[in-house]
Specification:
633 residues, 10-stranded mixed beta sheet, 20 helices, binds adenosine-5'-diphosphate
């Protein structure tokens, strides 16, 4: 039972009264034709009955409810279960086949029966854009009947069809109207006269004639509830839309992948670069010596130390603080050092004999560059190690050489006595500024003559990073003996450089991110615009905004997922030539690091950006009115 009570309609911002005080009652079945010239308000009336728009005045009573007072959820239910729309242009979803169009929201157990009834059983799995006009309208009617609505609202259902097909469709509607109320808006007088049970004529928004008044009053009761749609249904719509628009989707995946690839390049290179540098650092820096001397100066005036010192202070007292520390080097300590000989390349012990400092190395040093004379071979032989042809005056003075300048010949072969033993300089060796042997300048010997004495300092040159850790473990056992690890001082400097490089790379990746997000935003916006009619159709079938959101977000998540996999594969392939190139440029291998961590990051970034990118377009769909969607071209 459908009653229109004093219905008037005036569109916002328009002075024209489109519908003027309409009073109509409809039975629960029968074929009603609304006839009238174009612009007289027929479609407007149909939209009001369908709950797509609201009257300016009056009420529409649907059995036991007033249409205008239904909430959003109940209105969805009304669209889904009470009314069904048939349009002139069918409004089918082209990327879905016949069955999927019919079962767009709800699954139908009697689909075959329905297809049979509408004579389209053999088209079941066909794409709808290959169908004829009449077949398309049959699919639209099937979609409508699939929800088993009480009322069918048909807006010019035969407007785009030839006479023969028009008759077939009207025949079908006539048949349906035996059990349901079918309201057909048309300007085709002949068809109306042939098929209608009742003809209502409209002119300038008024009913000018009504062939048959209603007598019976049957009131049905409706249990309004939520329209539920299965996850599979939503998933199917997403999947089919992605597949059907594969060309465009390939383009958008490619476009987004460019952003993702640049991001992964930045992330991969920065993490790989850090790792490569760390390895390089470990290997090279670990070769710098660990220095232990009788008096250690606190070179590293660290914050911690200052902090500790402050903690101890209190007002009115002055605390004495020593910058140097006396290390008591015991025999036990020396034995400990000897025990880690295997972990070192060299152990150099420095002895102070009558003011002369002699470095004694435990084996011949190969890296030294002999520039005059010969290398060490005997106990009492010494090498004079210089740096860029320079040497500290004090060292020369301590062995009685007091001139400012000496030729190689004057020095090679020079003999001197220390504690009754004669020494001879047999050669001159050089180190360069960046050599880690820099600290070895002076007199170098391989004699074990001094072994009975306690050296004044030690230089331990670890073999590599792992061995260095072992050495440090041994040294740390002696809490009272301080040592200086040269590499840590140098390392502090180099990490600053790495941090700076990483910051620059990070900025690049931020730009890549921004570009990608904008790109996704534009792509989803276009997608929404393209599908406004479809959104209107979904809404007119009672699909709530929530489900429409799922469809769009789901699509973007899927595209984000595909994009990240594509990007990952591309970058994985590219990493081979890129790493080769970077190795040629920097000498470091595997700078572009592609691992599962990166894949995870790309996935997260890609999917979340896709969700963010689709946020505004989805908000747009929420605001769209069904009636505006349907008019959208
Ligand atoms: P019919 O279906 O009989 O051809 P309509 O119901 O579509 O006529 O339109 C009736 C009148 O209302 C027309 O003059 C049309 O221009 C006007 N109209 C329809 N929709 C709107 C709207 N959204 N805003 C303003 N005017 C409208």
């Amino acid at each position: 039972m459908l009653i229109l009570k004093n219905i008037s309609k005036q569109y916002e911002g328009s002075k024209t009264i489109v519908l003027n005080n309409i009073n109509l009652k409809f039975e629960n079945h029968g074929l009603i034709c609304i006839l009238g010239p174009s612009g007289c308000g027929k479609s407007t009336l149909l939209n009001l009955i369908g709950g797509l728009d609201y009257p300016t005045e009056g009420d529409i009573l649907v059995d036991d409810a007033i249409l205008g007072s239904l909430n959003k959820k109940d209105l969805d239910y009304y669209h889904n279960k009470y009314v069904g729309f048939i349009y002139q242009n069918y409004n089918l979803i082209n990327y879905l086949n016949v069955v999927d169009n019919i079962e767009l929201i709800n699954k139908n157990k009697r689909i075959d029966e329905l297809l049979d009834y509408l004579h389209i059983k053999d088209k079941k799995h066909q794409k709808v854009n290959n169908l004829s006009g009449g077949e398309k309208q049959r699919v639209a009617i099937a979609r409508c009947l699939s929800n088993d609505p009480s009322v069918l609202l048909c807006d010019e259902p035969t407007g785009a069809l030839d006479i023969k097909t028009s008759n077939e469709i009207m025949e079908l509607l006539k048949n349906i109207s035996k059990k349901k109320l079918v309201i057909v808006v048309t300007h085709n007088e002949e068809l109306a006269l042939q098929y209608a049970d009742r003809i209502i004529r409209l002119e300038d928004g008024c009913v000018i004639s009504d062939s048959k008044k209603i007598i019976k009053n049957v009131i049905n009761k409706y249990n309004y509830s939520k329209v539920k749609v299965s996850r599979r249904k939503i998933f199917n719509i997403i999947k089919k839309n992605i597949i059907s628009k594969y060309k465009r989707n390939i383009l958008s995946v490619a476009a987004f992948s460019v952003g993702l690839i640049s991001l992964s390049l930045v992330l991969g290179i920065s993490s790989g670069f850090n790792k490569a540098l760390e390895k390089e650092e470990k290997d090279s820096l670990s070769k710098y010596p660990i220095y232990i001397s009788k008096t250690s100066t606190n070179l590293d005036n660290s914050l911690e130390e200052i902090f500790d010192f402050k903690k101890e202070t209190d007002d009115n007292y002055i605390y004495a603080k020593s910058e140097t520390h006396e290390n008591e080097i015991t025999e036990e300590y020396i034995n400990e050092l000897n025990s880690i000989k295997e972990n070192t390349n060299y152990i150099v012990k420095a002895y102070l004999i009558n003011n002369a400092l002699i470095n004694v190395v435990n084996k011949k040093i190969d890296d030294l560059n002999i520039i005059a004379g010969s290398n060490l071979s005997k106990e009492n032989e010494l090498l004079l190690v210089v740096n860029n042809n320079r040497i500290n005056t004090e060292i020369l003075k301590s062995i009685n050489l007091k001139k400012e300048k000496y030729s190689y010949d004057e020095l090679v072969g020079y003999e001197f006595k220390l504690k009754k033993k004669t020494y001879k300089i047999v050669g001159i060796a050089s180190t360069s500024e960046d050599s880690y042997l820099y600290d070895l300048t002076g007199l170098l010997s391989i004699s074990d003559y001094f072994d009975k004495e306690i050296p004044s300092a030690f230089f331990l040159y670890p073999k590599d990073y792992e061995n260095k850790q072992i050495i440090l473990k041994h040294l740390d056992k002696y809490k009272d003996i301080e040592y200086t690890d040269y590499s840590t001082t140098i390392k502090k400097l180099s990490t600053t450089i790495v941090d700076a490089v990483s910051m620059v790379l990070l900025c690049f990746s931020m730009i890549a991110l921004l570009v990608s997000t904008i790109m996704i935003g534009i792509i989803s916006y276009i997608s929404v615009l393209e599908r406004i009619k479809e959104i209107g159709l979904f809404k007119s079938l009672g699909l709530s905004n929530r489900y429409i959101k799922y469809i769009f977000v789901g699509e973007n998540i899927a595209l984000g997922y595909i994009s990240s996999l594509v990007s990952y594969s591309v970058i994985k392939l590219l990493s081979i030539p890129i790493n080769n190139l970077l190795q040629n440029l920097t000498g470091m291998s595997n700078i572009l690091l592609i691992d599962s961590n990166l894949l995870f990051i790309i996935l997260i970034v890609s999917i979340s950006l896709n969700i963010i990118g689709s946020y505004f377009p989805i908000r747009k769909t929420k605001k769209l009115k069904i009636i505006d969607c349907m008019k959208y071209e």
